[in-house]
Amino acid sequence: MKIDYEKLGLKVGLECHQQLDTKEKLFCSCKPELFKGEPKITFLRRLRPTQSELGQIDPAAYFEFKKGVKILYEADPQTSCLVEMDEEPPHDLNREALDITLTAALMMNAKPVDEVHVMRKVVIDGSNTTGFQRTCVVALGGEIQVDGKKIPIEHISLEEDAARKTGEEGFIIRYRIDRLCIPLIEVATAPVIHSPKEAEKVALTIGRILRATGKVKRGLGTIRQDLNISIREGALIEVKGVQELELISKVIELEVQRQLALIQISEELKARGVTENQIRDKIIDVTPIFKDTKCRVLRRAIKKKKHVMAIKLPGFSGLLGRELIPGLRLGTEMADRARFWGRVGGILHTDELPKYGVSKEEMDRLMEILEAEPQDAVVIVADAKENCIDALRAVAERAREAVKGVPEETRAANPDGTTRYMRPRPGAARMYPETDIPPIPITDEHIRRLRKALPELPEHRIRRLIKEYGINKKLALQLQDSEYGDLFEKIVEETAASPTLVAATLTETFKSLKREGIKVEKLRDNQIIKIFKLISTGKTSKEALPEIVKWLSEHESANPMDAVEALGLSMLPKDEVQRIIREIISRNRELVVEKGERAFGFLMGLIMKKYRGKVNAEEVSKMLREEISKISS
Amino acid sequence: MNEKLPGYKGEALRILESLGAETGDFIYIEKEGKVYEGTLMPRSELGDDKHIVIKIKSGYNIGVRITSDMKIEKKGSGAKPSFTPPPPPKQRPDLPRVTIISTGGTIASRVDYRTGAVRPAISASDLYSIVPELSDIALIDTEILFSAFSEDLTPKHWTKIAERVAEHIKRGAHGVVITHGTDTMGYTAAALSFALQNLPVPVVLVGAQRSEDRPSSDAAENLIGAVQCAANAPFAEVVVAMHQTISDEAIAIHRGTKVRKLHTSRRDAFKTVNAELFARILDKKIIILADDFNPRRNDRNLILKPRFEEKVALIKFYPGMNPKIIDWHVEEGYRGIILEGTGLGHVRRKCFSSIRKAIENGVIVAMTSQCIWGRVNMNVYANGRDLLSIGVIPLGDMLAETAMVKLMWVLGQTENLEEARDLLTKNIAHEFSSRTVEPVKPPETISV
Fold this sequence. Notes:
The complex is a heterodimer of chains A (633) and B (448). Chain A is α+β, with helices and mostly antiparallel strands. Helices cover 40% and strands 20% of the residues of chain A. Chain A contains 21 helices and 23 strands. In chain A, the strands form five sheets. In chain A, strands 1, 4, 6, 7, 8, 11, 12, 13, 20, 21 and 22 form an eleven-stranded mixed beta sheet that branches. A four-stranded mixed beta sheet of chain A has the order 2-3-10-9, with no helix packed on it. In chain A, strands 14-15-19-18 form a four-stranded antiparallel beta sheet, sandwiched between helices. In chain A, helix 20 packs antiparallel against helix 21 (617-632). The model of chain A has no long low-confidence stretch (mean pLDDT 90). In chain B, the strands form six sheets. Chain B has an eight-stranded mixed beta sheet with strand order 9-6-10-12-13-14-17-18, with helices on both faces. Chain B has ten helices and 23 strands. Classes of the chains: A alpha+beta (633), B alpha/beta (448).
């Protein structure tokens, strides 16, 4: 399906988050690293929603609190101290992180604020031990160029990363606090992006600029994009945590599709004459219907003294089973809500029944008890009574929203580009000052110093790489996006290796080796430089390079010369090569005499097959031609 | 300081005053080609006078530096926040009546996100709406006695608190809770332990180590524990209720004379020293851990002895301490000195003559240990034996702070030195324990 995004009024704003590669965390001196294995420290907390002066309380947060949700934090003394445990006030803001953020801001032509104020952004899902995320705006009003279009940058902030969720058992949610307080830069664009592809390019451009600072972390989990997506008839949806660049356009495409499908459902409901008022929270205990059921899920629940409860959704027949996007139905959205508000495992609905062992008779009985007509749908859940009621109330609420259209939500990105319900969108009023950290003035003198040491902008560098080293644009782009840009220039400077060979090795060769599962990242810069020295001085051949890299990745911090020797990849001396060529010719004398110059290809093939990596192909070719011409002339 | 422009001073204050602005107003600033718009915010006490703080549309605060060529305007007045609390839960007259006396150290508050101000909630209905759990435990009555940082409280405040507590008990409260800043809560707890004798109901001091405006605050859990204790505990003593560990699980109940703040910031900063923990609240149940306690009674016959002599000093000995410090106190008319000696209860010999002079002048001099844990024993070393013979009174395993409070109280009760010495060494409120056992440590970790 070809979609005209412009016509739909698609507006996307990006919030790019990337972890900074600092020595310490943002508000303490812990190492900004994650730990593996069992936690040495655990503690249990509750987070109580604070009331604002206007009596506002985040409804989702308050609901969770009332249900008695507790958070079990896991920590390791290597990566967390009392600050992350919220047992000690924060230390001063990490100045290294502030300078990296300021540098990135200047590269995006943003204006640093005169004085930085750290704020507390209330987040009480447990991802922050304090119940708020510490964050500060460092610069305002920048812009970047993407395909000749100016993309305004609204603000550039510095904030602490959150704890990572490691599990959930009943009313206990587990979080690991190693990631908490790792510095993150956030770059927020204006909502001026009008197509999925454009969003991806904007993210790529921002990513390039951040990497150009040389001070950001790399690898999965270090980058997260939040997308604010809306279409004209739909709603503003915040999608959180897109980890891969390639997924951005897919997430947007699918979200637009989802919103279009929901708008269609809303129109259909209206056409059926369904109104919000008709959808009532009338929840009925239907446990007796299923007391002899063959449905395993229901039988198990009833055996555990749980209840089966149901709600009627008038006029919804056929709509719950309708696919919004592949794998996601309106029924799925209701199940997400039921899980969030009722902590139930899932829902069953009449659009998918009879199935899962639920019989036709049971279904008829269900429709009868709920006084449902064929045009109605019925949703059932099985759990403790209280949970059933909360879950079905949430289902009814989602049904009412379906009449209206697209509900505003915060959704989380799945690895396949689809999204799932995360929570209602939080209210705007949830930031207040972090009084434990004094304001930090940014002096003009400091900005002048940073400006002098500004890294080269990515687009400048790409142009320069092409011009200075004569490599093609594709390689230059790849180098810029790789982590080896600086190393490339160093190798070319220190060795006589051809820039194109170096660039292709650092990008394409390394990429394909990684794909084969070879841990290229284990190689140190000086080892890589040495490999190119060996090649450029004729100690080994460029064909031997992949083998050497592989060997070094398995022999940490070994000398590349050892690899060459261990693999028998050292170059044969010239007279030895001469001897081999002569031998081959003498063994194929007839062929050479008969075919002359045309025997070259065959002979060259024979030699290279046997001696690849030990001989220089160009040299062999030259010598072979000379020898052939001696005989055939 | 201008009340409408909190934290502003110097040039920034002058400019804002000339605009007739106050925090909450909408401010427009233009300088160096950039426009800054937002709500005027209060300024940190630590801030200079060169910046104006505004909350921009995204909710963030930024500081805008004042320059000579900037343009600044007040574009509108901020809407004054009108607070409509959620309806308080239904009160249940069948529940025990508990009075909450607030002395500062707010225990419940709400945030004005507009200006960032944190406003304490003090009325009973405010408390109920913020900590609704309280309505299931007790019928609450509140009194705001002071709004002070706890380091600003003096023995005069202890007297006042004791009098108010006695009054509420006489009027029929089933228990009294006192909210208190944590820094000197241990001192006040000791003072009340001596001033309120023959108590018929519990008196519970409570505070918070994390400010109450944050979702992770320990304030509400501590307050719930304290109210539970005041309403239902079987004992009638002065206690402190605070987190037992860093988890939101058990609330430790410490005896007022045996408790000390032992950490600057942790939730479990308060520990019972030289005794076993008195009681603990876990899963809404009060578990008594001590061997004996003064039981709750229905009568109202408490004995109030609220006077404290302020001319008592707590002097911590350190290597090379100049004995003139002791002389100075005597010249200033001090009536009592608690020494916080080294180890088992020692000070350098150079101090001996000053101490002798003090005692000869009718000053009571008593010894505690700066080790915090353990009891003094001045028979073991020669210096200790000599101090004893000079007339220094050893105070066993009493905490130095409790000893100082007690001596203030003792000298508030009697002028007679003989009587004072007897009273000081007599166990009145479990300040002495005759046995010290290996403490049972609370589990640092929990498993689910």
